């Protein structure tokens, strides 16, 4: 069995895909680390849902978030080594999220009030994942403001993913979720 530890990060740095190292507190490490947190939060939501279709949809989102993290963790100078030299996250991925949102809201309109999360364990976990994705989005914006090379589709994808997670959390909560009106 191979060792799980490499000791290469003992100096406070971490490796990028296709080479290069950055400090563990680098903006890019923060951004892809937050996406990893969101993958874990989604895993909790998936373990708590009783709806098989919802569990499958969450698993698909977890897998896509691994792609987002990989896109962020790729050494910008070596991006040409990616398939065709293109980014991993695409506008088509964002369009698929938009279609899911539209279909879900058409089937079950959202309440016209602020929502108080926590009607069910799975809806609460989805709301934690949503809030974590919002934090990842802010980290990507910080990268952009620092004039770091970032795939702009990553920011758009994260923005739309947080919207979808809001909708999915409402689905999981059902009719039992309290609004700010009581």
Describe the structure in brief.
By secondary structure, the protein is mainly alpha-helical. The protein has helices spanning 27-48, 52-73, 91-107, 121-145, 152-173; strands at residues 13-15, 21-23.
Let me know the largest β-sheet: 2 strands, antiparallel
User: Would you count the extended β strands for me?
Assistant: 2
The CATH topology annotation reads as Hypothetical Protein Ta1238, Chain: A
| Highest CATH level, the class | Mainly Alpha
Give the SSE layout.
Layout: E1 13-15, E2 21-23, H1 27-48, H2 52-73, H3 91-107, H4 121-145, H5 152-173
Antiparallel strand pairs: 1-2
Structure characterization notes:
- By secondary structure, the protein is mainly α.
- It has a single domain (17-74, 88-174), classed as Cobalamin adenosyltransferase-like (Hypothetical Protein Ta1238, Chain: A), CATH 1.20.1200.
- The chain is 59% helix and 3% strand.
- The chain has five helices and two strands, in the order ββααααα.
- It has helices spanning 27-48, 52-73, 91-107, 121-145, 152-173, and strands at residues 13-15, 21-23.
- The chain has a two-stranded antiparallel sheet.
- Strand 1 (13-15) and strand 2 (21-23) form a beta hairpin.
- Helix 2 (52-73) runs antiparallel to helix 5 (152-173).
- The protein is globular and about 50 Å long.
- The mean pLDDT is 88.
